[in-house]
């Protein structure tokens, strides 16, 4: 679920500071959401000024914004050495910059924009994953609902299994759409409230093995640094 307390000034500070980390001649993962958008626009301005970079978008929205900003794009298989009929080896993303909905002790809840499946794929593949957030996202422990992308037919069975785990699943709907939110991958999202999550790693493992779960929004041990912006334009680098 989106936390809406942060200001644009704080998001801008985090996003634009992280955009300075992009080196010439590299591949950068482009995150989703309003904070990552500040980074994408800043990278676009650097491209205008001559920066040679290729972007891998984490969502339809990130791709559209990157195109608007003139950032050359490649697809993930283009940087993983995949040949037809082959799995390829490793990934060639140097740096990923992405937002988060909640951060505690360097672990994240993501998926407020329903893009967490592809975000995890890109962010985890990067040599360095920098999270950009405003201060309202940083808490002592994770306790927001965890977005879980599910195959459409699995929404009921996953909700049952989430209840067995002590959680409560709610099918995500949108304000300006009849029916549920459909992800970029054609799936549904159930937001699963567990209250305080004392062991995110254990919960992540339990959610991952549920039949019909495509991806959940717990990002445990994936982030390398978290850039926390404040209203005055300062950025605190944590868990680096
Ligand atoms: O996980 C995400 C999308 O799936 C976003 O990164 C997250 O929702 C943060 O967005 P914002 O910066 O707009 O608060």
UniProtKB/TrEMBL annotation:
<dbReference type="GO" id="GO:0006014">
    <property type="term" value="P:D-ribose metabolic process"/>
</dbReference>
<keyword id="KW-0413">Isomerase</keyword>
<dbReference type="GO" id="GO:0009052">
    <property type="term" value="P:pentose-phosphate shunt, non-oxidative branch"/>
</dbReference>
<comment type="similarity">
    <text>Belongs to the ribose 5-phosphate isomerase family.</text>
</comment>
<dbReference type="InterPro" id="IPR004788">
    <property type="entry name" value="Ribose5P_isomerase_type_A"/>
</dbReference>
<dbReference type="InterPro" id="IPR020672">
    <property type="entry name" value="Ribose5P_isomerase_typA_subgr"/>
</dbReference>
<dbReference type="InterPro" id="IPR037171">
    <property type="entry name" value="NagB/RpiA_transferase-like"/>
</dbReference>
<dbReference type="GO" id="GO:0005829">
    <property type="term" value="C:cytosol"/>
</dbReference>
<comment type="subunit">
    <text>Homodimer.</text>
</comment>
<feature type="binding site">
    <location>
        <begin position="110"/>
        <end position="113"/>
    </location>
    <ligand>
        <name>substrate</name>
    </ligand>
</feature>
<protein>
    <recommendedName>
        <fullName>Ribose-5-phosphate isomerase A</fullName>
        <ecNumber>5.3.1.6</ecNumber>
    </recommendedName>
</protein>
<feature type="binding site">
    <location>
        <begin position="32"/>
        <end position="35"/>
    </location>
    <ligand>
        <name>substrate</name>
    </ligand>
</feature>
<dbReference type="Pfam" id="PF06026">
    <property type="entry name" value="Rib_5-P_isom_A"/>
</dbReference>
<feature type="binding site">
    <location>
        <position position="137"/>
    </location>
    <ligand>
        <name>substrate</name>
    </ligand>
</feature>
<dbReference type="GO" id="GO:0004751">
    <property type="term" value="F:ribose-5-phosphate isomerase activity"/>
</dbReference>
<feature type="binding site">
    <location>
        <begin position="98"/>
        <end position="101"/>
    </location>
    <ligand>
        <name>substrate</name>
    </ligand>
</feature>
<comment type="pathway">
    <text>Carbohydrate degradation; pentose phosphate pathway; D-ribose 5-phosphate from D-ribulose 5-phosphate (non-oxidative stage): step 1/1.</text>
</comment>
<comment type="function">
    <text>Catalyzes the reversible conversion of ribose-5-phosphate to ribulose 5-phosphate.</text>
</comment>
<feature type="active site" description="Proton acceptor">
    <location>
        <position position="119"/>
    </location>
</feature>
